[in-house]
Each structure stands twice: as structure tokens, then as C-alpha cells.
Design brief:
Blueprint: E1 13-16, H1 20-31, E2 36-39, E3 53-54, H2 56-64, E4 75-77, E5 79-84, E6 91-95, E7 101-103, H3 106-119, E8 123-125, E9 130-134, E10 143-146, E11 149-151, E12 155-158, H4 165-169, E13 175-189, E14 196-202, E15 205-213, E16 216-223, H5 237-242, E17 247-262, E18 266-267, E19 270-272, H6 287-303, H7 307-333, H8 335-347, H9 351-360, H10 364-369, H11 372-382
Parallel strand pairs: 1-2, 1-12, 2-8, 5-14, 12-19
Antiparallel strand pairs: 3-7, 4-7, 5-6, 9-10, 10-11, 13-16, 13-17, 14-15, 15-16, 18-19
Helix pairs in contact: 1-3, 1-6, 2-6, 6-7, 7-8
The structure holds flavin-adenine dinucleotide.
The site of flavin-adenine dinucleotide (FAD) has 41 residues, from helix 1, strand 13, strand 16, strand 17 and helix 6.
Amino acid sequence: MTNTPTPLNSPDLLVVGAGPAGLAAAIAAAHKGLSVVVTEFRRPSIDKACGEGLLPSAVAALANLGVDPTSVEHAPIRGIRFLDATGPQASAQGLFRSAPGIGIRRTRLHQLLLDRALNLRVRVHWQTAVQAIDSAGTNRPLEVHTTAGVFRPQYLVGADGLHSSVRRLAGLNRGSIGQTRIGIRQHFAATPHTDLVEVYWSPLGQAYVTPISSSELCIAFVYRSRPTTRDHLASFPALRDRLRSATPIGTTLGALTLTRSLHRVHRGNIALVGDASGSVDAITGDGLALCFQQALALADALSSHDLMSYQQAHARCSRLPRVMSHLLLLMDRHPALFSKALRAFSRSPSLFPDLLSLHVGDEPLRLLGSGGLLASLLCLLSN
Ligand SMILES: Cc1cc2nc3c(=O)[nH]c(=O)nc-3n(C[C@H](O)[C@H](O)[C@H](O)COP(=O)(O)OP(=O)(O)OC[C@H]3O[C@@H](n4cnc5c(N)ncnc54)[C@H](O)[C@@H]3O)c2cc1C
């Protein structure tokens, strides 16, 4: 965007938050030629409670950002299996039809994104907090006050997660919040027994198991209410049996996951990306794909000075994940519905693979247009 060097505190773009969304937004914008500065609260390396699974759509968006997660330790993921964690091993599974997904430790993914951003000359200020934004929503130049000084960027992007300060300071908090759940992440040393992500369902919530290398598993436990025990496997007997010889490793981390939808994701020269811009429940596995897709759409909008087009692209890519989040949370709240769904999946073996294809964006129009999938879904919910 700028052909002449900009003063260090007046970049084309200031991004607040160096999580996956912030780094992806910085990469995509720098790739378009914008000068970019990122400010981040914490110090690297940045870890966060996450299931550590990348859907095929996330891997594809990463490729567009010039980031290859297969260049570091990872595990390929071929599909998803749902299992009843309490009863006899009822299950349903589907394979990704177009390309595999990937399991990768959060810290490895963060380092890849950071390396790519630094290669594109993005400047990062660590341990820096935003304190105030002047001129938000007006036509006057932005002034962003941070603990590292005042920045006067042309554009400001809030990528500061679920509890975004930029969202609040820019007056973009209006919207709706759905269910909030509690997520706990634990790594285990174990040789993966499958290349599927396994999601174990219990009346308390889900445990989903993602292979992240040839010798490590990541398990995300997601509960409707605060767990009363630290022995998370106790609520998932089938998984506990499966992991009898696995050893917990590293630090256990917790985080909230919530469903939030905002009326607007931009105002004046300020835009939101990633969880700051609204979120879907962790069970969808869609959070990171959304971060990367939104980052790419945002860079297009910034380079054409048309943030309204970002609002539209954001709505487009969030629509299906929201529907899936709603359906999955419905099954979470009503365990009888989950059991019914498992029975329906075993009666019509193509139903779960079709739903999975719809979820990950493999041929969605063909699947919806066929009528068969919709009819089966209605049948499932009404039986
Ligand atoms: C239990 C759990 C499991 C999940 N599993 C998956 C999964 O398997 N696959 C998937 O795709 N998604 C998953 N998700 C969702 C995914 O983790 C999020 O969607 C993703 O982390 C959002 O990235 P983000 O960059 O928007 O926010 P964050 O990762 O929260 O990053 C925000 C960054 O902003 C910084 N920050 C905050 N405030 C400020 C401030 N004022 N100034 C400067 N910096 C600030 C924070 O320190 C942080 O580094 C899961 C989520 C949870 C909770």
C-alpha cells in the first residue's frame, strides 16, 4: 500500500493480539504489501488450550498464507469418529473426501506463523497492552495508546481473542452470546491408534482426541459446567480404557469456549478477526479455519480500502460453522438425541460422512441439493 517507508509508529496496519488470527492477519496483509505492526500481551512461545486439530479447510487457508504445517512434527488426520463414551462402543465415522486435516501442537503452529510473519517484515511488540483508542469510528486518524507508546496506524485490527479489548473500545460488542463451555487440554505420550480425531460423548460433555505426532495425543475435554474432578478420564470410561498405557505429559491448560455472533465486525478503520470477531463452540473444530479464512478476506478488503466487503466475507464463512455448532450443542444438551443420532448414523451409513463433508466444505451444494441429507436430518430430529 505504501511505497515510501513509514515511521515506525505509523504503520498501514496495527494488529492487536499475536494468536493464530492476529499472526495470520499480519501475514496476509504484509503479503499484500502493507507495513504491519503487531502488539501482544504475552511473551512467546504462546500456548493455549486447544484440541490442536486443523480441518482440511484450515490447512488450505494456511497454504494461501504460505505456511506449511507438514514442515514440522505433526500427524495427518483422515476423518472424524464419534463414540459413546459410556455405553458399549457405539460409533459413527466419516473420512475427509478432498484432503486430509492435520494434528499439530499449538506452540509449533504458533512458531510457524511467527516465522512467516517475521520473514514478511512484520514487527512484533511483545508484552504490550492496548490502553485506549482515540478517534474510533470517526474519520479522523486513529490513535492507539499502548504500553509501548502511541501508534497512528491507517487501520487497526483487533485479534485479541474471546474477551477482546479492541472490540469493547471500538464499540463493537453488540451481538448475541450462546452457550459458554469449559475446555481443558491435556497432552499424552502415546502412539496414536488411529488417524481419525475421536470424539467421545458423555452426559457431561465431550473428550476429543487428536493425534499430533507419531508419539503424542492431544485431548480436549469440553464441559457444560465446571468439572468437579481433575481425573477427566473418569467421566469417559471407554477412553480411559483405551488410554490405559498412555502417560499424561506437560501442562494442563483451561479456556472458555463460547458461541458469539456480532452485529458488525468493523467500524470506521477498525476490524475484528478470529475469536474477537465472534466464535463457534470448540467441538466444531472450526475455530482456526475461521481465523485463517477471515485473515485472508480481511487482507483483500484492506488492500482495496473496502472493509464492508470484509463484513460480507466474514458472514459467508461463519454461516455453516454456526449451524454446525448449533446442531452439535443441541446433541450435547440432549444426550438422548445423541444416542438417537448414533442409531440413525448406523441405519444409514452415508449420513455421517455426508454431514462431515458438509461441515468441512467438501461439495456442500451437491450435498444440500440432493435432498437426501436434509430429509435424513429432519427424519433424525423428528423420530
Ligand atoms: C478447549 C478448546 C479446544 C479447541 N480446539 C480447536 C481445534 O481442535 N481446532 C480448531 O480449529 N479450533 C479449536 N479451538 C478454537 C481455537 O483455539 C480458537 O478459535 C483460536 O485460538 C482463536 O484464535 P485467536 O487468535 O482469535 O484468539 P487467541 O488464540 O485467544 O489469541 C488472542 C491473542 O491476543 C492476545 N491478547 C488478548 N488481549 C490482548 C490485548 N489487550 N493486547 C494485546 N494482546 C492481547 C492474547 O494473549 C492471545 O495471544 C478450541 C478452543 C478451545 C477453548
